Amino acid sequence: MSKPRKTVDDYFNRNKWVFSLGGIGRDMCYALFTNFLLTYVLFTRSVTTQQFAVISTILVACRVWDGLNDPIMGGIVENTRTRFGKFKPWIMIGALTNGAAIIAMFTNRAEGWRFIYLFIALYLIWDITFTMNDIGYWSMMPSLTSRPDRRDKIVALANPFSGLGNLAAVGVVPMLTAGKYAIGGNSITAYAAVSVICVGMFILCQTFTCIGVKEDRSAKAEKEEKHGLKEMFQVIIHNDQLLWATLLTLLATLSGAMLTAFAAYYIYLEFGYNGTIVTMFTAFYAGAAGLLLMVFPLLCKKFCRKKALGVSLCVATIGYLGFILGGIHRKRVAEAAIGSATEEAARIVNNAMNEAEQKKKEAVLEARDEIHKQRTENERELRERRAEVQHQERRLNQKEESLDKKIEAHEKKE
Questions:
Q1: Which pLDDT tens digit goes with each residue over 201-260?
Q2: At CA 20, angle to CA 97 and CA 213, rounded to 5?
Q3: Inter-CA distances, 384 with 269, 375, 381, Å
């Protein structure tokens, strides 16, 4: 009697772990590119205001392009037919080409507008190729099991692994690219090395997933019911509770994004280009987020959800006030330091001027004394020479008188 043929559900545990592990490397690269690309540009390139405006425009335009690119790529993946299935080829093609774009972005040495043009091309390539990988990766999940509850378990495991890769990049990259632990001793070399490491992890994890998972190739990617933006806005506007919940979510997301976006630049500009401090900030931020995930369910059990949300809002408000007050305090400390430095500089300048004036007076007095001494010496020497001349004149006169006497005596004898 032959053994029953194994189905994809018999490989559930294997698929769950192998699929989830594949998200570590891809999210490391995603975090590197999205979180540190502008930092890399600002601290390794000399860009003008116009050039930075072009970069900002490209970043916004690519986010709009994503809305068009995703459904197009989804249709291409769904209609792919190869011996390796419909998902794995695009996962590997996307990983390889996306990795090449990342390495090219962080290793090129172009400057000026040449760098801007190269940045536009590489960013667009990165966006398209990551969509290839992303659509293929997540679309493959329904083919790993036929049971919806098991799909939920795969998602529940895949998300923490993806978060682990993201956290590893956000936490470690600053320390390895700035400060005393920077690879190669400078940011340019460090970012090049880090990009190669992250891309290597990306390709390794995705290869591990493609080789390890067993999929049901007859399964089709689930098609979700689509709703237009106009319909979504109408639903939100006509539902008061949903409207306020949406606005609060928008504000919370915006504030959190601004905090994480400005944190690194604030630390770099305030405390120096030291990635270790950014890593410490990220560690505290991640620790606080993890602690909140553990504490919030306990708060909901002890209090009603409304009170728990109120407590969370108060804590968040205190945190933001702490950032504001801390910034004001740092500003005052800096202004006081600048004022003290200005006063000290003025004192040093005044002391230097007074000292220079005193030395000038001393030099003038010394010059006068030297001139007087030289004049006295010259007058003494002149008197001595005059006395010598007078002495020689007297001797000469004496000799003339003696000679005259001798001549006179000689004439008398004759």
A1: 999 999 998 888 887 655 554 444 555 556 767 777 777 777 777 787 777 777 766 776
A2: 80
A3: 78, 14, 5
With contact defined as beta carbons under 8 Å apart, do 58 and 123 qualify?
yes
Residues whose CB falls within 8 Å of the CB of residue 260, separated by 6 or more in sequence, listed in order: 285
Buried b / exposed e over 219-233, threshold 16 CB at 10 Å, is bebeeeeeeeeeeee
Give me the amino acid identity at 125.
Answer: I
Q: Which amino acid is at 87?
A: F
Residues 271 and 263: their CA atoms lie apart, in Å, by 12
Question: If DSSP states are collapsed to H, E and C, what string results for the chain?
Answer: CCCCCCCHHHHHHHHHHHHHHHHHHHHHHHHHHHHHHHHHHHHHCCCCHHHHHHHHHHHHHHHHHHHHHHHHHHHHHHCCCCCCCCCHHHHHHHHHHHHHHHHHHHHCCCCHHHHHHHHHHHHHHHHHHHHHHHHHHHHCHHHHCCCHHHHHHHHHHHHHHHHHHHHHHHHHHHHHHCCCCCHHHCHHHHHHHHHHHHHHHHHHHHHHHHHHCCCCCCCCCCCCCCCCHHHHHHHHHCCHHHHHHHHHHHHHHHHHHHHHHHHHHHHHHHHCCCHHHHHHHHHHHHHHHHHHHHHHHHHHHHCCHHHHHHHHHHHHHHHHHHHHHHHHHHHHHHHHHHHHHHHHHHHHHHHHHHHHHHHHHHHHHHHHHHHHHHHHHHHHHHHHHHHHHHHHHHHHHHHHHHHHHHHHHHHHHC
Beta-carbon contacts of residue 252 (< 8 Å; ≥ 6 apart) = 316
Yes or no: say if 289 and 312 are a contact pair by the CB < 8 Å rule.
no
Residues of the chain whose pLDDT is less than 50?
A: 1, 221-224
Q: In Å, how far are 65, 78, 131 from 71, measured between CA atoms?
A: 11, 10, 10
State how far the Cα of 165 lies from the Cα of 32, in Å rounded to an integer. Answer: 10
Q: Which residues of 266-293 are buried (b: 16+ CB within 10 A; e: fewer)?
A: bbbeeeebbbebbbebbeebeeeeeeee
Q: How many percent of the chain have pLDDT more than 90?
A: 11
Q: Which two tokens stand for residue 311?
A: 């407590």
Contact 145, 154 (CB under 8 A): yes
Distance CA 225, CA 247 (A): 24
**Integer Cα distance of 314 and 286 in angstroms:** 19
| CA 230 to the chain's CA centroid | 38
Prediction pTM value:
0.66
